[in-house]
Design a protein that fits this description.
Order of helices and strands: HH
Shape: elongated
Strand content: under 5%
Largest sheet: none
Mean pLDDT: 90
Helix content: over 70%
Number of strands: 0
Length: 68
């Protein structure tokens, strides 16, 4: 359970940081950089989610196929 909560906090933290940087860059008139930062943040979060989904499928596979 602790691992699940930490992943949620990581994703939320990345989202907050990306939103702050995006807002600052947009106010400075650097909209291209702001969009790029948002895209990078999305890719990082997507990688975290994909990693956890791979772990989930591995756990499901070990339960149903009785592998360790």
């Amino acid at each position: 359970m602790y691992h699940d909560a930490s992943v949620l906090f990581q994703i939320a933290g990345i989202g907050i940081v990306v939103a702050m940087i995006h807002t600052i860059l947009k106010q400075m008139g650097k909209e291209e950089y702001a969009q790029f930062i948002t895209l990078i943040g999305f890719v990082i979060v997507l990688m975290i989610v994909m990693e956890n989904i791979a772990d989930l499928f591995q756990q499901i596979k070990s339960v149903f196929l009785f592998q360790g």
